[in-house]
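anyone else get weird line breaks when pasting these?? whatever heres mine. first is seq + tokens for prot A
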Amino acid sequence: MKLTWTILTALCFSTSLQMTAVITTFGQETVFSIMKSDNRKASELFASKRYRQAARLYESMADRAPNSKYYLALARAHYYLHEPVEASTWYEKYLTIESELPANDVLLYAEALASQKKYDQAVNYYKQYEKLSDNDPMVMKKIWQIKNRNYLLEDSLHYTIKRLDCNKPSADIAAVPYENGFVFLSNRARPSVIKNVDEGNSPFFRWYQSTMKTDSTGIIVHYGEPVSFFEKLQARYQLGPVSFFDNERQMAFIASNADHQLKGKRPLQLFFAVKGPDGWQFSRAFDFNGANYSITSVTVREDGKVLYLSSDMGGGQGGLDLYQSTFDGKAWSKPKNLGNEINTVGDEAFPSISGNSLSFSSNGLPGLGGFDVFSVMMSDRAIGEVQNMGYPVNTNFDDFALSLNADRSKGYLTSNRNGGDDIYEVTIDLQTYPFTIAGVLKYKEENWRESETLTVYPLAELELIDNLKGTVVARAVSDAKGEFNLTIPYFSQYRIKVTGSTDGDQAIVSLDLGKTRYGENRFELVVVKNSFKKDY
């Protein structure tokens, strides 16, 4: 994710065409004045998040005049370029000269070490930072997660991760399900008379579509060769992630704005398009695009009433934060920061909503190192508990841009676990929430204990109780045939309280839910008549 993340998270982009070479002569300038000028330029580049160019200048100065301040700047630049090996190398060089790191760099060094699976060293530096930060609770969680990382491996047998053969040596990222395949971003080279490149001399990102291919039996063989998607809307500069909604009749997308430029840089902004008889057509720009900040990724709920975006707009927790905006039928509301339950001083990006479950990537939340994928249940009233998706979705490398289908059983992931940014197909057989169980309620009479005879229990009230919270989270009533439907809102330990409709008798039935996906989600609940008691 080295180049990719720099492009997508940078505040804006360089937009010059690589068509000329500039030759500069220094005349009577001294080496000292040249280095002073380079240092100023490097500082300006770093401040504007153009880390690659800044690193080149700092490295040139370090070669000419070794200095710990250049080593520190290089370590920081490579960290923000998401190159942990290089960042660690420069931190190590810095520590050969200086006795200790600045407080914030202690944290960055710990993160870089964790990304290389050097967990013992990472914990040592996390502990140093913990003392310097007055017991930062997030760092305490990171230490706990690393020491208990086996918990993130327990569901690994229920995931299948497969690297797709349509990847190229270029960066292929942010695939989302579309029609019989997916749409994704790539900066693979394209035939062109004029070479459009970014500040790293890489081609701009463009959209591509790949379709599943099947054999005569209907079994999927592979994904077809990618073709350009929405060619007539291909922007002049960078394109970003897309999100389809309204049965794939509408889409939200990210692109650099050709009209907004500040000091040679262009922000990423949010736009919308609709699909008509003649294909996709641009419809509108997001009302809260800005010239001084970027919106780097977006997801829209299927009904088109809520979207989540990632942005470095002011007022956030730090870095890229996730925001929510709602649509009232005419306009989108001002984005609202999701707060520190989700956002951290690091980066949160690539949101993807399916049902009520929001997936996103973060390098600030506790994980296995680098960017990990997390999920959280979203409702109009509250935000659920953030969950790390665990291995093999997450590794110590950068894993991001997970996008799943409606029932969260299949989708796509981007990861650099094999060196470059590639797209992986993800298949999940874990039970997803919320889901509904159906079944029949029956009972035995007290004197039938030795009998297998069961009687349908009609018109009884069922209350689903969370054992951990001790609260009722769902209710249902059995019909005349004892049939019932009960919605399970989230994974937990549950019991069901059964109350008779005529005499008010009550009983408790345990409900054991595993993590794996159920077939038809059909249960037979049986209570014994002599177990009925009052006031559970």
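and prot B, same format (seq, then tokens)
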Amino acid sequence: MKFTRYCRSLLSTPAMAVERYTKSHQSGADIAMVDLEDSVPPARKEEARRLAEEFFALPSAKLARSAVRINTLSGPDGLRDLIAIARYRVKPDLVLIPMAESPRDIEIAAGALAADCPETEFLAVVETPLGIEHAPAIAAAGHRLRGLVFGSADYAFAVGARLSWEALAHARGRVVNSARAAGVEAMDAPFFEVSDLVGLRREAGLARDFGFSGKIAVHPRQLALINELFSPGEELLERARRVVAAGLENGRSVTVVDGVMVGMPFFEASQRLIEQFDPPRPDGSHHTQHPHRAQHAQQAQHAQHAEYQPQGHEPTDPPEPRDGEVTMTEESILGPRRYRNAEAMLASADPVWQAAAANGLIGITADSESNNRLIVRETGHEFANMVSCSYLGLNNHPAVLAGAVDALTESRSTSLVLSTTRIRHNLLVRLEEELGELFGANILPGASCTTLTAGILPLIASGHLDGTCQGGGGPRVMVFDRFCHFCMAYMKPVCADESLVLTCPHNDLNYLEDICRKYPRVAYVADGAYSMGGTAALDGLLELQDRYGLFLYIDDSHSLSIAGERGEGYVRSRLEMNPLTVITASLGKAFGTSGGVAMLGNREQFEFLHRHAGPIGWSQNIPLPMVGASLASAAIHRSPELADLQAKLARNIELFDELLPTTFAGNGLPVRRVDVGEAERAVKLSAQLFERGFYSSAVFFPIVPKGEAGLRLMLRADMDEQLIREFAGHVKELTADL
């Protein structure tokens, strides 16, 4: 295999995405790669190795060079990858070695594959400060090393730089220079904005002019443009032939071609260009046009060809689209959809919501006498609310209602209606103080948990929210638990403007520890008690915090008031507050009022967030009547009544688990889900129960994974035993065939 032919583009496919293997080979990439590293969760590495073997055995694998990216050789998975590759029936053309930091990495890989894969070549991914420092030695390692690949994201986060061309120009230059000095190739990092083809054109053009021979693609739609920009046009090839011919005629001494003086560097660059993109046929003639060759003749492959173009030359406009093609304008306005895809979500979810509406399960209007007796005014239909999050029934507590009235009377206002950054009402300050004493933390109130999350998460991502709030430590990699609440997942695109955003398999501490080992600053975003049941793996998270300085952002809304001696919640009752932990919680669930609070590790964080956390300080905070209701609820939390209500709730949870066991039975939390499988079945069951006087919500994708639809219900302290027994009996009867 002659590596210098067509190494313009590389497309990566996750090893677990078997259905995309053939498309990867057919994509037009010069190198089709299957990935065993970042795209594979730790628990599935062995399965990925087994699946990846098929990537090289498919008939379509002959359409491009086939490559595999292994795990770093600093851990056991990288060595296990090499052992598996050596046993593959069909061997890969290339092995990418990530996190390469010395020639020893290449020696290890080459030694492991020497006997079984003698033709396999290697690309070293240089993506750490040490790797950049040792790039010359790595490039000269030999052992069938064919090139260096620059890893921009890992390097940027390791040194605290922005992920921009200008910020990483020095590192890129060192990679190219090291590769060229050793006579090997250099490939540039991906351009991560999938739909920004204008930005890709700019960055790929800069990479070409820097001396890179190609660029990694993160999506097939990027390949045509990358291949175009890293291929010479026919006019440039023809000029290269004239330069080479003139050099041979004049003994490779300085001469003039097309009015331009050329010498040895021009001869060598032109010769390499011809070898790469227009090798002679057996009869000595050259191809006149290669099917993958760019249509724009003015663009050169490397910086040494810049002399062929006039100063200030701008990239030419893209070709006019053919019939049926998406135009550049249409393509460029489509978002990257890395963290949300409304089109796909609505296509799957809205038909089910429409079915729920058709069955009268959404948009219900009712009067209420209690949580257990709601009445549809038009029909007189009465039903019990089985999905209220007021787990202790405090939303109807006489003292809480009186607290709202007292605050309205005292303040003679609903709100100050201005930024709390500037002026806070004394009632709100009193609430901060009382909740701070109650929960043992610095309390920052907000209009809702969503508001708090929107203000705080971007400042964690940027690295500015720490013990002193002085910044300087660099951004944090933001790892979101796969099941974290929508209000947190909704912030992924915003955080991605500040930092690398990853999604962690649910409660997967091995995955999270791998990220902590790989990056110096990491934050984990999760629920304490999940809205669909279950809890965070808190003990393991605290170990990772102690070991790696992991920042924890945990929304514990569903356990506030029901856990802890003072109702401080599942998470707060199990850890000491510190500057690397933020706990948010809604006051609109078991606490019985409205708004949200953030529990902070110190006063500096409180003051910093008041100044800079955007929506937290805007003109909407907790309305003053609800502040009064919250003060009354806080008084209940300080009284023996809290323990009585918690005990009643615990008895009701135990009774339900006895009558209708679910996968969450025994966890002590009030959220239960009765799984029925398909969304249509969940909607039907919810409608049948509503007819019988019980409202429980049908949950389906995207609230839960596809095929796991069911009923969600919340147990409460103000439910009596008879109500629970009747509901469980109806569910059993209606699901008897499951």
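btw re prot B: The chain has four domains: 9-229, 232-286+296-311, 343-385+641-734, 394-637. The first strand starts at residue 9 and ends at 14.
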